[in-house]
Amino acid sequence: MRMYEVDPVKPSSIVHFDWMTLVFPIGRDEQARQGKTVCEFVDGVLHGLKLDRLVFMPLAHGLYTYDKAKTAGNNSIIVAWYDPIKGVLPKGKQTFMVQMSGSGVETLESILVNSGLTVAEFVKKAIEEFGATFSRVDPCCNFFNCSKEFSARYVGEEAKKGNLITRSSSVRLVRKFSSQGAKDDLDAYQGASEGYTCYVGKNPKQLRIYNKLAERSEKVNLLYQVQSWSRWEFQLNGVHAQAFMEAYVDRGFDLVQTWIDWLSSNYRWIERVGHQEKRSRYPNASWYDNLIKTAKEKIKVRSGRQSPTFERQAKWIDKQVLPTFASIYYARLQKYVENGVSYPDAKKLAIEKVVADLERQAINEKVDWAQVSSFVEESRDL
After folding, report:
1. Per-residue confidence at 190, pLDDT binned at 50, 70, 90?
2. What is the pTM of this model?
3. How far apart, in whole angstroms, are the C-alpha atoms of residue 232 and residue 288?
4. CA-to-CA distance for 112 and 122, rounded, in angstroms?
5. How far apart (Å, rounded) are the C-alpha atoms in residues 203 and 170?
6. How many CA atoms lie within 13 A of 223 on its CB side?
C-alpha cells in the first residue's frame, strides 16, 4: 500500500496524488533550445527530474494530440511530444507532456526516495527549473478504519437529502457488487463485497468518493488488513488543476492543508438545526467537521526514507525494468533470426547489443557510480 504504514484497526488518513499530468514548455527552434533537438530537450528535462532512470518504450501512435510518445512502468508513466518538421515547432505545439497515473505516481515515489527526494520537491523543481504547468491532478485522501459517515454511500445519501452545499450541479450515487470480494461482511457502507461511488459534479471539476476496499477486492482479489478504506478524490482538469497546484505552492507544498482547504471551500455537508430559510445558515454536520479533523491530525506520513539498498533496488528493477528490457532483447533476437542468422548466433548478437547499450550509458555518464559502489559493497554479503 504505497510506502506508508497503516494500522489495521486505528483510524488514520493518507493524502497523496493519484494522478498528475505536467506540461513543459519547449523552445520553438534549436536556437531557443540551446542547440538541442526536441528529443534531446525532453530527455534533458527527464534527466533533471530523475525520470531518466526508467526504461522507456515507444508508443506507436503518440498520445492525445502529441504525435510522439514513449512509456514506462506498464504505461503508468507516459511522455509525449510533437515531432517538428526541420526542427521548428509551430505555435501551439511548443510543449511536451508527462502523464502519471496512480501507479505511475507510486513509481515516481520509489525513484525519489532512492534519490533522497519527496514528491513536493519534485513538483517544486518541475515548476521552478523547467516551467511546468498542470493539466490534470487527482489529489486524494484515504480514510482507514473510520466511521461509516465517511463512506460513499452515507455521504451520497446525505447529499440526496439536500444536506450538501456546493456549486456542483449534480450528485450521482453508483452501487456495484464485487464478484471476487469477501461474502461474509455485512457492512453495507464499508464492506468489501459491496462498493459505492458518489460523484459530486462532473469533469473538469469533480469530487469522487468511493469504497476503495471493495474496489481493490474486485480488481486484484485481495483483502487488505484494514476494517474500512474510503477514498475522497478530486479529479481536476485544465484551469482547476492549475488552480489547485498554485494553491499547493502558496501553502508551502503542504498537500494535506491544500486538500483540506479545497474540500472546505467547495463542498459542505450541513446539519439541519431549527428552521432556517437559507441552507447556508445551517452549521456543518458534526461528522464532516470530524472528517476534516481526521485528515489534518491523523495523517500517516512516510515510514521513513528508505536507503537505496541493493536488495530493495534489485526488487524494484525486477518489477519495473526487466520486463521491458526482456522485450527489447527478444525483439532484437527475432530480428537477427529473420535476417537469416542462426538462433545461437542471434542470441549471442542480441546479448552483445544489450551489453553495448549498457556500456554506452556508462560512457555518457548516466550511471550513479556512488550507488554502484554502495551496491557492490553491500552485495558481497549476499
Report:
1. confident
2. 0.77
3. 12
4. 8
5. 11
6. 12
